[in-house]
């Protein structure tokens, strides 16, 4: 059996880092889905989601010595809305969380752009460098993504059973995001500034 290769090349580390980031982001949602699938108890599943999210943030901090701004914002919103659901024993709060959060994000990035600022660049500027036109296009595309997600969630929690809404939350919202990421790729490639 050969020993694993230790590489100092940062290019080799990117796929591992991307996979780790994906698991830190998706792991809590998958545990939320699994807990509800096994126990059909939304309040217990919310506890699992909140706990797993806090653990994921702690792992992120331990490994990277930073917590991504969007992850921190999402965790605060989750603790707030999840806490309200648990305290009042009312599933409405956790169900409206995606709507409220995505509408706030859409308003923040679109409003900032209309005021001549670039909040999306402030959040993600360290991860990518784009032309001003590129930032403008991506900002409006992401605002549309957040609005679409919020509207879809608003419809979903009103017409679906709780179990079906959880499936939508985990896989449907992720699917909406994935579609917009795929749409974003050509724009990012066209307007990216090379180092």
Automatic annotation (TrEMBL):
Protein family per UniProt: Belongs to the YciB family.
GO molecular function: transferase activity
Matching InterPro entries: YciB
GO cellular component: plasma membrane
HAMAP family recorded: YciB (MF_00189)
Transmembrane segments annotated in the record for this chain: 44-63, 70-88, 100-116, 137-160, 166-188
Pfam family, one: IspA
Organism this protein belongs to: Puniceispirillum marinum (strain IMCC1322)
Function summary: Plays a role in cell envelope biogenesis, maintenance of cell envelope integrity and membrane homeostasis.
Annotated localization: Cell inner membrane
Keywords annotated in UniProt: Cell inner membrane, Cell membrane, Membrane, Transferase, Transmembrane, Transmembrane helix
Membrane topology: Multi-pass membrane protein
Protein name: Inner membrane-spanning protein YciB
Main subcellular localisation: membrane
């Amino acid at each position: 059996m050969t020993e694993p290769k230790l590489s100092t090349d940062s290019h080799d580390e990117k796929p591992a880092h991307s996979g780790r980031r994906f698991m830190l982001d998706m792991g809590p949602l998958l545990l939320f889905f699994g807990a509800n699938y096994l126990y059909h108890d939304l309040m217990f599943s919310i506890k699992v989601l909140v706990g797993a999210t806090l653990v994921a943030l702690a792992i992120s901090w331990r490994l990277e010595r930073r917590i991504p701004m969007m992850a921190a914002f999402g965790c605060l919103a989750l603790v707030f809305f999840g806490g309200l659901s648990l305290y009042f024993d009312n599933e409405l709060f956790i169900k409206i969380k995606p709507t409220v959060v995505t509408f706030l994000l859409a308003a923040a990035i679109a409003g900032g752009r209309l005021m001549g600022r670039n909040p999306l660049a402030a959040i993600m500027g360290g991860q990518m460098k784009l032309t001003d036109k590129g930032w403008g296009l991506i900002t409006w595309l992401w605002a549309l993504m957040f609005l679409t997600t919020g509207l879809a969630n608003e419809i979903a929690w009103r017409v679906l059973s709780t179990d079906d809404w959880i499936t939508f939350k985990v896989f449907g919202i992720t699917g909406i995001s994935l579609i917009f990421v795929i749409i974003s790729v050509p724009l990012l490639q066209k307007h990216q500034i090379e180092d």
